[in-house]
User: Which sequence fits this backbone?
DNA sequence: GAAGAAGGTCACTAGGTCAA
DNA sequence: TTGACCTAGTGACCTTCTTC
C-alpha cells in the first residue's frame, strides 16, 4: 500500500478561500473547507475526528461497500474508507480525547438494587484524601534541616481536614531538627543520624495518621518493616515533589558522606523519574506516598497484617483512580504511578543493606569517639531494634 | 474579553428545535421530535421502526380505516397508513448497529453488604474482548512446531466472535509450520527462522485484528517497532499461558542454539512470573497480551501513532479494570499486571540487540552455506527491513 | 491580527432493551 | 406487541489554536 504520507501542503491562513459551491469529497454535499487533509463538509470533518481520532467503533458495510453520495453518511465503513481515499489523514491531529470513557463516567446511579457506577468520592474517601493531602503538604514543606528552603504552607491546606493537620504539625515540630553547621567532625555524624531520624519519625506520624490503618494493631515486626522501607522511599517522593515546587534536589548533601555512589545514583534517578515523567499533582503525590508507605510487598510475614495492608492499598488505589477519572486523566497515568512504585520498591530492596551498613558504620565511629550520652531518636531507634 | 456585555448566554451546541406542546402528526399526542421524517411521539417512532424496518407485518382495520387520534395506536393498519401519509420514510434508516454479543459476563448477585457498585462492559467492549479472547485461544493452542502438544480449541471459542475467529484460524494456517526434525545441520537454522517467522506473522495477524487499531493508518516504522517487540514479548505470555494449561515451557529448545544464557534466564523468569505470580484467566491473558502488543512506550517516534496507541491502551485497560471488578478482584491485581508488563518491556528492551545479533548470525551462516533460495517469511522479513 | 482549521459542546435522533 | 427509557453517533455551532 502506498503510504499516502505525501500530504499536499494545506491551505492555511488568509490565502485562497474556498469557492461557494465546492463539494465535500466524501459525501458530495456543500463543503466548508479543508479538514484533515481533504475538502469536506462539516459533518464529515466531525465524523473523521470522532471515528479515527477518538477511536470509535467501526463496522462492516451491509451493502458490500457500495454506499455513495449523501447516503454514505449512514455507513461508517464506507464513509471512513472514502475519507481515507480522498486523503484525510491522522497526521493532522493535535490532541486526542477519550470520549467513550468520559461517557461512562457520566452514568448516574439508578434506583435499582444494582447501582451503576458513579464516579465521585464518598465522604469516607473524601476525608481520607483530605487528611493525606494535608499531611503531605506539611511534610513536603517542612524543612528537613535548617539549610533547606521552606515552602509556605499557609493557604495550601485550606481545604483539608484542618484539625488533624494541625495535630501533625505539632507532632512534627517536637522532632529534633538536624543542624547542618559542623563545628567538629562529629557534628556531621549527628547530622546524618538526625536527618534519618527525622524522616523515620515523620513516617511514624504519617503511618499512625493514615485513616483506618489501626497502627497499634499491627505487629511490631510489621511496623518495623514499614518504617524501615518507608524511610528509604518516602523522602525520595518528597524530594521529587519539592523539585516540582521549584526546589531542586540537593545532591551535594550526600556526596562525601560515605554512601556508595550507586545508591546516590539510583536515588536521583528515581527523583528525576518522579518529577519529570510523573509530575503528579499534590493530591496524587500524597496518595502515591501513602501507597508506598503501606505496601505489604516487602516481606510482611504476618498474614493478618498483610491483609490489612492490602486492603488499605486497595482503598488508596480506588481513591486515586476515581480522582484521576474526575480530572479526566487516563488510566495509563495510574499505571505509570504503579510502575513508579514498583521501581521504588526495587530501589529500597536493593539498597537497604547498603543503607544499613552506612548507618551502622556511622554509629560505630560515633560510639568509638564518645561515650554515647543517648539522644532519644525515636524513629531511628525503632528501626534499629529490628536489626541484629 | 469584552464582547457584547449584554446577556448573551453563550450558547453551545445546536439550537433547540422542538417547542413544548407540539403534537404527534400520527396520533395527536405530545410529540418528542422529528423521527423518520415527521414530527411524532416516541411510541409512533418505535412503531414505525418495528413495523417497517423490522417486522413488515400488516393487519386489516376493523373499522374500515377510520381510526384517528389516540385510538389510531390500536390499529396497525391505520397507524402505518397515517405514518406514511405524514411523510415518515424508510430512507432515514442508518445501518444496523453492531449487535451486542450475548452478554457472557452476567451480573453477579451481591450477597455481601460491601458491594456498592457494579459495572458491566458495554457492547463495544464486549465485542473487543470477545475478539481478543477468541484470537488468544487459537494463538495459544496452536502448535508453534509439530513437536509441541496442541490443545483442543473446540468449545472454548464458542461464545466469542465466531466469524472473526475463524478468519484468524485460516490466516494462521497459511503460515509455514516449523519442522523440528533435523536431517542436516542446516535444518536447525531453518527451524529457528521459521519459529521466529511464525511468531512474527502471528503478531501481524493479531495486530491487524485488534478492534479499532486501524493498522494500515500507522506508519511503517511504528508497525515495525510493534511487531519487533511484540514478537519478543507475546510468545512469553503465550508460554506462560500454556504453562497454566498444563504444558510446561520447554527450556531445552533454546539451549545450545547460541542464544546467550542471560536471555534464556530472563525469558524463563518472566514466564514463571506470569504463571505463578499472576496466574490470570484466559480473558485477562488476552487483554494483557493486547496491552503488550500495542504498547507505545518503545520508541514510537510518530506523535500521532503514539496517541493512537495510547488510546487503545486506555481502552484495553478500561476493559480489564471493569472485568476485574466484575470478578471481584482487587485493583491491586491490575497493578500487578501493569508491573508485569513493565518487566516484559524491560526484557525486550534489554535483549533486543542480543536477539538481533542471534538472528543475523544465523542468517549469515545460512547464506554462507547455501545460495539462499529465499523462502518467504513475511513476518520476519517485515521486521528485518527496519534494521541496518 | 485575521483567516482558517483543529477541537469542543450538546440537543437531537436512530436504534436497542425489557418489563408489562 | 408496546412504549418508557437508554445508549451512542450526528452535526450545527461554538471556542481555541496556528499560520501567514
Ligand atoms: Zn461530507
Ligand atoms: Zn456502506
Ligand atoms: Zn404518535
Ligand atoms: Zn384502523
Assistant:
Amino acid at each position: 500500500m502506498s503510504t499516502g504520507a505525501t500530504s499536499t501542503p494545506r491551505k492555511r491562513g488568509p490565502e485562497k478561500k474556498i469557492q461557494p459551491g465546492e463539494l465535500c469529497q466524501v459525501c458530495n454535499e456543500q463543503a466548508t473547507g479543508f479538514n484533515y487533509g481533504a475538502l469536506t463538509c462539516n459533518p464529515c470533518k466531525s465524523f473523521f475526528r470522532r471515528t479515527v481520532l477518538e477511536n470509535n467503533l467501526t463496522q462492516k458495510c451491509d451493502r458490500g461497500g457500495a454506499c455513495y453520495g449523501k447516503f454514505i453518511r449512514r455507513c461508517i465503513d464506507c464513509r471512513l474508507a472514502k475519507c481515507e481515499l480522498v486523503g484525510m489523514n491522522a497526521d493532522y491531529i493535535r490532541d486526542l480525547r477519550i470520549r467513550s470513557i468520559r461517557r461512562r463516567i457520566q452514568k448516574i446511579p439508578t434506583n435499582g438494587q444494582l447501582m451503576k457506577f458513579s464516579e465521585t468520592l464518598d465522604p469516607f474517601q473524601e476525608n481520607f484524601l483530605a487528611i493525606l493531602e494535608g499531611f503531605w503538604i506539611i511534610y513536603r514543606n517542612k524543612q528537613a534541616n535548617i539549610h533547606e528552603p521552606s515552602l509556605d504552607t499557609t493557604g495550601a491546606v485550606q481545604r483539608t481536614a484542618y484539625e488533624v493537620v494541625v495535630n501533625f504539625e505539632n507532632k512534627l515540630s517536637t522532632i529534633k531538627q538536624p543542624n547542618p553547621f559542623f563545628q567538629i567532625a562529629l557534628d556531621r555524624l549527628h547530622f546524618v543520624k538526625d536527618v534519618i531520624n527525622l524522616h523515620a519519625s515523620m513516617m511514624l506520624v504519617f503511618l499512625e495518621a493514615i485513616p483506618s490503618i489501626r497502627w497499634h494493631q499491627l505487629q511490631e515486626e510489621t511496623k518495623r518493616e514499614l518504617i524501615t522501607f518507608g524511610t528509604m522511599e518516602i523522602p525520595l517522593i518528597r524530594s521529587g515533589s519539592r523539585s516540582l515546587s521549584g526546589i531542586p534536589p540537593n545532591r551535594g548533601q550526600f556526596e562525601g558522606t560515605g554512601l556508595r555512589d550507586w545508591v546516590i545514583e539510583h536515588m536521583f534517578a528515581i527523583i528525576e523519574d518522579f518529577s519529570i515523567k510523573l509530575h503528579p499533582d499534590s493530591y496524587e503525590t500524597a496518595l502515591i506516598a501513602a501507597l508506598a508507605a503501606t505496601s505489604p510487598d516487602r516481606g510482611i510475614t504476618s498474614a493478618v497484617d498483610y491483609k490489612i495492608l492490602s486492603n488499605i492499598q486497595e482503598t488508596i488505589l480506588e481513591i486515586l483512580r476515581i480522582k484521576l477519572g474526575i480530572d479526566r486523566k487516563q488510566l495509563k497515568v495510574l499505571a505509570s504511578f504503579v510502575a513508579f512504585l514498583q521501581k521504588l520498591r526495587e530501589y529500597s530492596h536493593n539498597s537497604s543493606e547498603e543503607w544499613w551498613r552506612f548507618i551502622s558504620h556511622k554509629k560505630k565511629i560515633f560510639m568509638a569517639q564518645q561515650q554515647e550520652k543517648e539522644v532519644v531518636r525515636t524513629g531511628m531507634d525503632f528501626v534499629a531494634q529490628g536489626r541484629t
